Each structure stands twice: as structure tokens, then as C-alpha cells.
């Protein structure tokens, strides 16, 4: 899982207690710790996973960042060079959607080439009781159209939509002609200095 | 009751030319005296902090090192000056006695006199009436019996009186009581004075006023005034560690009434955990670290694994921890880690479950190292059982993947030499029992080597097996420590006969020793015993202490 072999950098952003870590846990290890007490992420945690998409194999390097406000000033360390950002909001917390707009602006200003994916979390709670929903789906899609982002509503508890989200991200990445060229360029550059390329 | 140094023939002696047990050839941590942090708080760092060395902090010093094209002659000279400053600072920390300001000394001695007394208001200013204010008001603010009966409350508030942290209860429900505290503090500040301590019945109210923050302890524990003040300093440092002094200062410069809780979200648990550790772990009281007992060859091997595989530019410290104990510490030449900074790192690891799930990359400020900026820490557990935690601290924020590769190489080498198994085994067997020391009637002890800032202590055996007994033992140590380090009357040796045990504390230029004997031991016996004990520690020092400090 060495970092240098990561093909694509993905970063998760969003308000604390929004379920970013659970989402990553579900995707990387297919598990959900429902009974464990809440643990705020410190700084950022890194994980990587290989996935197959449109006949290609890609290693995704995923940065799960801390949602606490004090890290905002330093968040650039984590999202710099990211090809995709999953901006999370808690569907049962309207305030968390306000933070989404902050992150979108931040990314637009600093990281033009980063594709944005809006991700509602804790869908299971909304499915359980419609009254739990505090963020309207159409409002989100309208906003997403405006900023040309895609929307996914997910649940780390049931796993709903989480694999789809990452597949879509990987697919968009591979289909993007800019990245294709970039990939070829990268491989060429890599091969030049090393005389024999060995598989380790 | 006390048998001080009156009878020459009965005092123990230690040849000061011989290095104390546990003293290494090279220093691994910055050496400390107890309360060193505190004295520095009074005289050194406050002053130092008032003019933060923005561009000349330790971090930028290291960063600049790696840019030789920028490092002209002038910068070279600046660095020299910087280093001299740093050295002087260390010197000061080292030599400084507990020389507090005169008004404070009266506080301390009065406090001593009034010990057990009913009510005493001790402040260094004109406002003895402050006491009645807090008494009558606390009655209105008392929430529940459970809240009231907590033995040690800690509060943090901003200079504007806004609640930031309370150990128990929701801080926003305590607005009134914090307002009163703020009123007391600023009333005295107006008269160019400061409020340090109030004693009411069994309770001590201890105040620490730092720029931007006021910290208050309200305790009915064995802790002395200085010990509480010391703990408040740790809490302050913990907040700095999360935010940096620069950021804290900037925020309050912009908005005096800023609600700091917003920025501290998620880090309250670090303060909670720190306070819990301070009530149970002697390392904070002693200003020292405990090492995981390991054969010196194994420890050497572990250090080599790190030195060989993490030798990358800009890496300042590599630290291996297990169960709050230090396994090894590799540092960049010239730079030392202060024990209190290491305590904050231990607290960070101890308080967070989230490092167990994945490799992490987090900013951390070490107030003693450089309060003005962040170091970046790569944090990862090395074993599947999540017991051995590796931290790599660097000034380069883009080094995660480099360090992640280092980690893999370190793990590979550790496994090749079975070091991780050795660590797991050392953790599984308890460190050592007092019976292994083989001294009759010696129940427990704490030994600190001052020059290396490390200490050793046996497991808690009978009678200290219940929580109550352990707390009582800790209280005895607090008392012994307090008496020996009392600013009004510091002692070299203290022999104290209590109802259940006899205590002997001994302080030399090289070490501090705190021993607990059975109640019937005589002074002569106790002295013979501690001489034996010192020989035993000397014999075991290879295993109990880190004697060689590896560097990059």
C-alpha cells in the first residue's frame, strides 16, 4: 500500500460527526462499528484500495480528514493534488450542509482539477423515519447542478450506494481524457530512469 | 515525626562523582527538575511567550537548514544566537530552584500553616473579601450533589470570561460560576496583582493566568498548591498543542470574546484524558518518563531499525511507545524532546482510538519545542494487536508517503529480529514486582534519574491492589513530593512515620527517590534499605532505562 503507487487521490471533507470515517471503513473493509463510541478523527487517516473499473485496475488513495474546524486552516495539506473530493453532509443535520458550501468554495478556489461529489450520509436514519431528514434532496441536486457536481445519498450502516460512489469516481477519472494523457505521461516518465522494471 | 538531616550518622549519602543509576552517557530527553515547567512558567516561558519567535522558532530553524541557498552567513549567525538562547534556556531550567516571587512564597507558607484549618483566604492582593464572593455564589451555581462531590474540578475560561472547558458538567451551564472566577481574577489584575490561591475548608482554588486564558483548579485532594498549578500548566500546554500559541493569540487579538470551544471541538477528550493520567501516573508529577523494561540488546536493535530506515531529511523525532511507556526515542542531533512534550504525545496516543484504524497524518504543536508552529506527525501502530505505536515527527508537511515507506521498512526489520514479539512479551509480563527487589518491608518506590528524565517504579502489589489503596498510595507520594519540593522549606531528606506506612524521600543532585515502607521500620533500617535499593537499580539499569540516545 505504498503511497507512491497510488493512482488517484481522493479526499473526504465535511463537518465533524458527519460519518466520513464510517463511510471509508465500509468501503475499505466492508464493516461498520455501530456500537463503538464516536471517535473524532485526528488530523487525517490514509487508506488505499485497488478497484477494477472499465477493464482497468486503479489504486485509490483515500484521505479521511478530521471535520473539526481547527483543521480547516491546514486542510490544504490533505486535499492538494486530489482528483476527487467527497464532500459529506449528514442528512439528519442541516448545519452540516452549510459546511458543504464552504468546502466547495475552498476547493473551487484552490484545486480546480478536483471533481466534487456531494455525499449525504446516514441514509438509514432517514429511511427509518422520514422526519429525520433535515436536508432536502432536491435542494441538494439543484445546488449540485449549479456547481456541476454529482450527488449520492449513502449509508455506511447498510452499505447502500457506497461502492457505487467510489466506482463512479474511478470511472469518471479513467474516462477523463486529461487523466488518460496524464497517466501515459506518468508511466513514460517513470520508466525512463529505471532500466528494468520489476514487479514486486 | 520528621527526621531531617539532624543526625549526620543516620543520613544516607551518595557519592556525587559517581553517576546516579540510570544516568546514561548521552542524554535522551531534556533533563528536568520537578516543577521545572512551572518555574519556567513563572519566569521563562511567559516572557518568552510574550514575544513569540515567529521566524526564528525551532521549526523554522530546521526548515531553514534544508535550504542551504538561503542560509547565508547572516542566517548562520542568527542560528548560533538561537542555539545559545536555547542552551541558556536549558541551563536555566536545569539550575533553577523553586525561586518564586516573594508574594507567592508567603502564599505557599501560609497555605502550609493553614493546612487542615477551617477557612483561609490567601491572596497576594488587597482582596481577601474575594472569598466570600465565591462561596455565596457557588451555592447558587451548585448543580447536583454528584457534580459538587467531584474531588478535582478544572475550568478553563477566556480572558473575557467565556467558558472553554470544564472537567465535569457542561461548560455552558457554568457560565455564572466562570463569570465569578473571571471577576475575581480581573479584580486583582486591575490592582496590578494576581490571584493565585484561595483555601476554603478542604478545598483549594488555584488560579493560573496565562495570556488569553485563565485556568482554575478546585480540589479537595492531596495535591498541593504547586502541584495543582503544575497540572493547570499541563492543561494550558495541551491546548497550545492543539492550536499553537500563535493561532491562539491571533484569534483573541482579532476577537476578544471568541468562543474557543469551536476550535477545540473533539479535543476535550485530550484534556479529560490528560487530567485522568495526571491523577494516576507519577510520570507527570516527576517530570519523567517510564521506559518499557527490555534487554538492552533488544532496545539497541529496535533503535537501529529506526535509525537505519527512517534516516530521512527533516525528520526530527522518531518515538516508539507501548502502553504509555517509552520503548525508544531517536532524535535529530542538537534537538531534545522535553519530557512534558513527550507527555502530551503519550496523552495523544493514549486518548485516541482512531490511530488504531489507519495510518494517520496529523499536525501537533509541542509547546516546549516550539509553541509557534506545528510539527507533522505520522502515527501508526506496528502490530495487529495495536500495542506498539510509532510516531515520526517532521517539519515537512508533505512527507506522509515517505514516512509510510519508512514504517514498512522498520516493521520488516523489527520482525526479522523478532523485536515486535519481544515487545509484546515485555508488555504481557508485568514490569517487575517489589519482591524481585528483595528488600524486607519495602512496599513500593519511585526512582527518577534527573539527568535522563526517566523513572522506574515496581508494579502495585499488595496492599495496593484496590483502587482506594492505590489512590491513597498516590496521595502519600503527592505529600512526600510536596514536602521535599516545598518552596518555603525545600528538603533533601524526609523521613515520615504515618499510621499505615513509613515514607522516606531523598533528593540529590542526580536523582529523586521516594520510598514507602511498612509502618514499623526504623530510620536506620530504612536507610540501609535504600542503599541496597540503589545498588539494585544500578544492577538493573540496562533493562529499566534508556542509557544511550540514538540520533539521526
From TrEMBL, chain A:
**What is this enzyme's EC?**
3.6.5.2
Q: Name one Pfam family in it.
A: Ras
Q: Which residues form a coiled coil?
A: none
UniProt KW Phosphoprotein keyword = yes
> Which Gene3D superfamilies does this UniProt record tie to the protein?
P-loop containing nucleotide triphosphate hydrolases
State the annotated membrane topology for this chain: Lipid-anchor
Q: Catalysed reaction per UniProt? A: GTP + H2O = GDP + phosphate + H(+)
User: Mind telling me which GO cellular component terms the entry cites?
Assistant: autophagosome membrane; cytoplasmic vesicle; cytosol; perinuclear region of cytoplasm; spindle
Q: What are its cofactors?
A: Mg(2+)
- PROSITE patterns, alphabetized: RAB, RAS
Cite the entry's keywords alphabetically: Autophagy, Cytoplasm, Cytoplasmic vesicle, Cytoskeleton, GTP-binding, Hydrolase, Lipoprotein, Magnesium, Membrane, Metal-binding, Nucleotide-binding, Phosphoprotein, Prenylation, Protein transport, Transport
The answer to whether UniProt assigns keyword Magnesium to this entry is: yes
Q: Among the record's GO biological process terms, what is one?
A: protein transport
- Region described as Disordered: 180-200
Top-rank lineage group of the source organism: Eukaryota
Q: Name one GO molecular function term.
A: G protein activity
Q: Where in the cell is it found?
A: Cytoplasm, Cytoskeleton, Spindle; Cytoplasm, Cytosol; Cytoplasm, Perinuclear region; Cytoplasmic vesicle, Autophagosome membrane
Task: Quote the InterPro entries the UniProt record gives.
Answer: P-loop_NTPase, Small_GTP-bd, Small_GTPase
The task this protein performs is described as: The small GTPases Rab are key regulators of intracellular membrane trafficking, from the formation of transport vesicles to their fusion with membranes. Rabs cycle between an inactive GDP-bound form and an active GTP-bound form that is able to recruit to membranes different sets of downstream effectors directly responsible for vesicle formation, movement, tethering and fusion. RAB24 is an atypical RAB protein that presents low GTPase activity and thereby exists predominantly in the GTP-bound active state. RAB24 is required for the clearance of late autophagic vacuoles under basal conditions.
Q: How does it assemble?
A: Interacts with ZFYVE20. Does not interact with the GDP dissociation inhibitors ARHGDIA and ARHGDIB.
Q: Which family does it belong to?
A: Belongs to the small GTPase superfamily. Rab family.
Could you tell me which PANTHER family the record lists for this protein?
PTHR47978
**Protein's name in the database:** Ras-related protein Rab-24
* Organism name: Lingula anatina (Brachiopod)
- Upper taxonomic classification of the species? Eukaryota, Metazoa, Spiralia, Lophotrochozoa, Brachiopoda
* Gene coding for it: LOC106164465
TrEMBL record, chain B:
* Domain FUZ/MON1/HPS1 third Longin residues, every copy: 441-541
Q: Where is the composition biased (Polar residues)?
A: 120-130
Q: Which residue intervals define the domain FUZ/MON1/HPS1 first Longin in the entry?
A: 152-274
Query: SUPFAM superfamilies under this entry?
Result: SNARE-like
Cellular component per GO? Mon1-Ccz1 complex
Domain FUZ/MON1/HPS1 second Longin span(s) in chain numbering: 313-411
Q: Some GO term, biological process aspect, for this entry: which one?
A: protein targeting to vacuole
Q: Where is this region: Disordered?
A: 1-32, 45-136
Sequence ranges of Basic and acidic residues compositional bias: 64-88, 107-116
Query: InterPro entries this protein is in?
Result: FUZ/MON1/HPS1_longin_1 (IPR043972), FUZ/MON1/HPS1_longin_2 (IPR043971), FUZ/MON1/HPS1_longin_3 (IPR043970), Longin-like_dom_sf (IPR011012), Mon1 (IPR004353)
Q: Which Pfam family is one of those matched by this entry?
A: Fuz_longin_3
Q: Which family does it belong to?
A: Belongs to the MON1/SAND family.
> What is the stated purpose of this protein?
Plays an important role in membrane trafficking through the secretory apparatus.
* Protein name from the UniProt record: Vacuolar fusion protein MON1 homolog
- This chain's source organism reads Lingula anatina (Brachiopod)
Amino acid at each position: 500500500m505504498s503511497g507512491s503507487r497510488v493512482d488517484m487521490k481522493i479526499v473526504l471533507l465535511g463537518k465533524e460527526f458527519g460519518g466520513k470515517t464510517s463511510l471509508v471503513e465500509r468501503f475499505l473493509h466492508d464493516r461498520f462499528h455501530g456500537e463503538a463510541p464516536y471517535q473524532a478523527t485526528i488530523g487525517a487517516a490514509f487508506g488505499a484500495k485497488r478497484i477494477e473499473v472499465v477493464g482497468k485496475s486503479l489504486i485509490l488513495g483515500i484521505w479521511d480528514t478530521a471535520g473539526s474546524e481547527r483543521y480547516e486552516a491546514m486542510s490544504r495539506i490533505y486535499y492538494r493534488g486530489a482528483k476527487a473530493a467527497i464532500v459529506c453532509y449528514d442528512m439528519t443535520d442541516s448545519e452540516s450542509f452549510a459546511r458543504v458550501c464552504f468546502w466547495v468554495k475552498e476547493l473551487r478556489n484552490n484545486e480546480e482539477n478536483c471533481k466534487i461529489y456531494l455525499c449525504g450520509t446516514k441514509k438509514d436514519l432517514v429511511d427509518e423515519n422520514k422526519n429525520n431528514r433535515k436536508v432536502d434532496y432536491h435542494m441538494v441536486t439543484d445546488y449540485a447542478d449549479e456547481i456541476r457536481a454529482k450527488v449520492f445519498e449513502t449509508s455506511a450502516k447498510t452499505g447502500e450506494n457506497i461502492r457505487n460512489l467510489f466506482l463512479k469516481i474511478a470511472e469518471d477519472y479513467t474516462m477523463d481524457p486529461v487523466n488518460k494523457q496524464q497517466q501515459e505521461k506518468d508511466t513514460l516518465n517513470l520508466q525512463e530512469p529505471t532500466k528494468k522494471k520489476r514487479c514486486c | 515525626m520528621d527526621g531531617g538531616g539532624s543526625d549526620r550518622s543516620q543520613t544516607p549519602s551518595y557519592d556525587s562523582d559517581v553517576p546516579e543509576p540510570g544516568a546514561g552517557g548521552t542524554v535522551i530527553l531534556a533533563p528536568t527538575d520537578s516543577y521545572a515547567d512551572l518555574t519556567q512558567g513563572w519566569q521563562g516561558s511567559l516572557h518568552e511567550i510574550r514575544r513569540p519567535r515567529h521566524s526564528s522558532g525551532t521549526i523554522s530553524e530546521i526548515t531553514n537548514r534544508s535550504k542551504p541557498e538561503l542560509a547565508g552567513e547572516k542566517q548562520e549567525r542568527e542560528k548560533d544566537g538561537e542555539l545559545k538562547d536555547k542552551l541558556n534556556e536549558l541551563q536555566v531550567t536545569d539550575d533553577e530552584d523553586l525561586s518564586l516571587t516573594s508574594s507567592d512564597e508567603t502564599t505557599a507558607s501560609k497555605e502550609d500553616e493553614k493546612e487542615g484549618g477551617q477557612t483561609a483566604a490567601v491572596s497576594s492582593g488587597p482582596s481577601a473579601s474575594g472569598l466570600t464572593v465565591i462561596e455565596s455564589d457557588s451555592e447558587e451555581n451548585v448543580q447536583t450533589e454528584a457534580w459538587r462531590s467531584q474531588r478535582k474540578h478544572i475550568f478553563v475560561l477566556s480572558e473575557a470570561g467565556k467558558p472553554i472547558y470544564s472537567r465535569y458538567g457542561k461548560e455552558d451551564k457554568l457560565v455564572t460560576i466562570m463569570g465569578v472566577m473571571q471577576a475575581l481574577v480581573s479584580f486583582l489584575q486591575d490592582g496590578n496583582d494576581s490571584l493565585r490561591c484561595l483555601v476554603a475548608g478542604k478545598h483549594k482554588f488555584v488560579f493560573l493566568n496565562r495570556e488569553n486564558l485563565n485556568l482554575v483548579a478546585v480540589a479537595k485532594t492531596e495535591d498541593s498548591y504547586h502541584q495543582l498549578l503544575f497540572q493547570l500548566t499541563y492543561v494550558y500546554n495541551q491546548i497550545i498543542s492543539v492550536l499553537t500559541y500563535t493561532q491562539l493569540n491571533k484569534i483573541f487579538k482579532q476577537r476578544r470574546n471568541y468562543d474557543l470551544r469551536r476550535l477545540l471541538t473533539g479535543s476535550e477528550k485530550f484534556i479529560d484524558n490528560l487530567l485522568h493520567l495526571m491523577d494516576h501516573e507519577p510520570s507527570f508529577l516527576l517530570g519523567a518518563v517510564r521506559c518499557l523494561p527490555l534487554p538492552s540488546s533488544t532496545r539497541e536493535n529496535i533503535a537501529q531499525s529506526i535509525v537505519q530506515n527512517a534516516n530521512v531529511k527533516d525528520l526530527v523525532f522518531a518515538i516508539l511507545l507501548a502502553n504509555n511507556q517509552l520503548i525508544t526515542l531517536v532524535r535529530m542531533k542538537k534537538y531534545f524532546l522535553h519530557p512534558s512534550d513527550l507527555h502530551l504525545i503519550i496523552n495523544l496516543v493514549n486518548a485516541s482510538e482512531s490511530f488504531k484504524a489507519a495510518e494517520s497524518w496529523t499536525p501537533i504543536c509541542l509547546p516546549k519545542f516550539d509553541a509557534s508552529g506545528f510539527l507533522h506527525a505520522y502515527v501508526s501502530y506496528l502490530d495487529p494487536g495495536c500495542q506498539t505505536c510509532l510516531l515520526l515527527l517532521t517539519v515537512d508537511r508533505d512527507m506522509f508517503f515517505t514516512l509510510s515507506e519508512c514504517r514498512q521498512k522498520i516493521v520488516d526489520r523489527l520482525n526479522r529480529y523478532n523485536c515486535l514479539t519481544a515487545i509484546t512479551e515485555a508488555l504481557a509480563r508485568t514490569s517487575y514486582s517489589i519482591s524481585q527487589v528483595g528488600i524486607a518491608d519495602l512496599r513500593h518506590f519511585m526512582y527518577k534519574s534527573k539527568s535522563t528524565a526517566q523513572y522506574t517504579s515496581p508494579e502495585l502489589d499488595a496492599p495496593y491492589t484496590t483502587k482506594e489503596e492505590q489512590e491513597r498510595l498516590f496521595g502519600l507520594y503527592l505529600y512526600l513530593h510536596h514536602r521535599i519540593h516545598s518552596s518555603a522549606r525545600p528538603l533533601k531528606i524526609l523521613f515520615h512515620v504515618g499510621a499505615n506506612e513509613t515514607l522516606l524521600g531523598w533528593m540529590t543532585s542526580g536523582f529523586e527517590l521516594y520510598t514507602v515502607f511498612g509502618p514499623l521500620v526504623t530510620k536506620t533500617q530504612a536507610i540501609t534499605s535504600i542503599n541496597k535499593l540503589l545498588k539494585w537499580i544500578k544492577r538493573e539499569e540496562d533493562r529499566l532505562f534508556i542509557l544511550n540516545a540514538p540520533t539521526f
